[in-house]
Amino acid sequence: MLSLSVTQRLELKGRAHALKPVVIIGNAGLTPAVLDEIERSLKSHDLMKIRVMSDDRELRATMLQEICEILKAGPVQHIGKILVIYRPLETPIAKAPKRPRGKPLTKKQLANRS
After folding, report:
1. Which of 15, 25, 65, 84 has its CA 20 to 30 A from that of 9?
2. Is 60 within the bounds of a domain?
3. By residue range, what is the domain housing residue 31?
4. DSSP state, 12?
5. pTM of the predicted model, to two decimals?
6. pLDDT tens for residues 2-49?
7. Long-range contacts of 52-58 (CB under 8 A, 24+ apart)
8. Is 96's pLDDT higher than 80?
9. Number of structural domains found in the chain
10. Those residues with Cβ within 8 angstroms of residue 14's Cβ, 6 or more apart along the chain or in another chain
11. pLDDT digits (tens, 9 = 90+) for 74-93
12. How far apart are CA 103 and CA 110, in angstroms?
């Protein structure tokens, strides 16, 4: 299981706020198919939300720990029926190329940018 510092968790909580749950765990619980789907999602998203339909808080906490141990992810947050987990991407995403340097921008162009 990946361990996160307090500052890392705070930053990740802020990033996760706007996210919607990607995977929903239903009444069948944490099945191999659900774990495979979470694994697939973690390959393209480093941070994700999971919704658990169970009303048992202890069961949800156990699921969070189990998911993080099996998939080598870090628990970020457990609030209500939402679990937030993080695992760094295996291959970093390439940055967009910078625009070619040409003539400097005019005052009018600079004013339009803000």
Report:
1. 25
2. yes
3. 6-86
4. H
5. 0.76
6. 899 999 999 999 999 999 999 999 999 999 999 999 999 999 889 999
7. 52/24, 52/25, 52/81, 52/82, 52/83, 53/24, 53/25, 53/26, 53/27, 53/81, 54/25, 54/27, 54/29, 54/81
8. no
9. 1
10. none
11. 999 999 999 999 999 877 66
12. 13
